[in-house]
Amino acid sequence: MRDELLYLGKQIVSHKSEIAQGVIRYQEQKFSDQLTLSGLKMEQVTEWRMQLIEMLGQSLYEDKVESSRKVKEWTGKVGEVAIENGMALNESLKTLSGFRTAIWDIFMEQLNDEQISASLMLQVNKEINPILDEIAYQLYEVFRTQEKDQIALIHTAMDELSAPVVPIAEKIAILPLIGEIDTHRASAIMETALKKSSDLQLDYLFIDISGVAIMDTMVSHNIYQIINALKMMGVQSVLTGIRPEVAHTLGNLGITFENLKTSSSLKKALEDIGFTQYEAVLSV
After folding, report:
1. What is the DSSP string of 12-64?
2. Backbone phi, then psi, for 203, in 5-degree steps?
3. What distance in Å separates the CA atoms of residue 263 and residue 19, rounded to the nearest whole number?
4. What is the mean pLDDT of each run of 10 residues along the chain (284 residues)?
5. Within this chain, do residues 62 and 168 fall inside the same structural domain, yes or no?
């Protein structure tokens, strides 16, 4: 059996170009259209397919560990290219079945002439199918990892947008807060505020809460924590935009911002440190 598998494996390798062309016949039109739209050259796609076919053939007589290593390396490279060019995972996976059929095709004449037995071809399938299944799994992992990375980037961008530190002069910036502030957002605000304050070497950061929808015990605590963290970095925070109804609610809840510098409006807070439209005069 081993000698027969060696023969069939070498046959697959020597006919890799023919098999690659056969895969084109079996791939769905939707996948062909995606390849055309992606801008990938068919010559390059065919080259990748011939590499895979060669590995499938060699797997019939090569060391399994080495075959697995080659397949993993190939899948990672081709998977990344597929993602970069907007190829859909489901269509890519469907095309794998075309390799099985195209490989059978090159042996049909020998099967019909009984030069090789159907049981031997079934053994070939038994050897090759797990490799194609492994490729399908690894492709899925490549796409899933990429998707997770993209989602993480989106979340990071959203976190940064939810806490925009806007420099208005040297060492002075504004952090306008709008909407609801939950624990996750408070953590993102603190991370962004600390990083931007360090990057901009701020002396003053004005935190305007006039757009915060609800001010309760939790939100107040979160803001207090942010200001405290900034203080440890040497950044003086000024809380502005406390609306009368918010002040009334906080008073009823017994919440005060003792030891924190506050101001009724951002304009007044800026004037208090000598900032004008044209210049800022900071105390040393």
Report:
1. HHHTHHHHHHHHHHHS-HHHHHHHHHHT--HHHHHHHHHHHHHHHHHTTTS-H
2. -100, -35
3. 75
4. 83 92 83 78 88 90 87 88 81 82 86 80 85 87 80 63 79 86 80 89 89 78 84 89 73 65 78 64 44
5. no
Would you state the pLDDT for residue 205?
92
Distance CA 277, CA 140 (A): 56
**What's 235's DSSP letter?**
P
Query: How many C-beta atoms surround the C-beta of residue 153 within 10 A?
Result: 10
What's the CATH code of the domain at 175?
A: 3.30.750.24
Place of tokens 């390849």: 35
C-alpha–C-alpha distance, residues 273 and 172, integer Å: 10
- Whole-model pTM: value is 0.53
Number of domains in the chain: 2
Domain C-terminal end among 159, 194, 213: 159
User: Using CA of residue 200, residue 205, residue 206, residue 208, what is the dihedral sign?
Assistant: positive
> Does residue 104 sit in the same domain as residue 238?
no
Question: Which domain-ending residue is among 159, 190, 206?
Answer: 159
Q: Give me the helices (H) in the chain, please.
A: 2-14, 16-26, 29-38, 42-58, 64-84, 89-112, 118-162, 183-200, 217-232, 244-252, 266-272
List the domain range (segments joined by +) for residue 30: 2-159
Whether 196 and 236 map to the same domain: the answer is yes
Task: Work out the number of other CB atoms within 10 angstroms of the CB of residue 175.
Answer: 22
Would you say residue 280 lies in a domain? no
Q: Determine the pLDDT at residue 162.
A: 62
Instruction: For residue 98, give the CATH number of its domain.
Output: 1.10.490
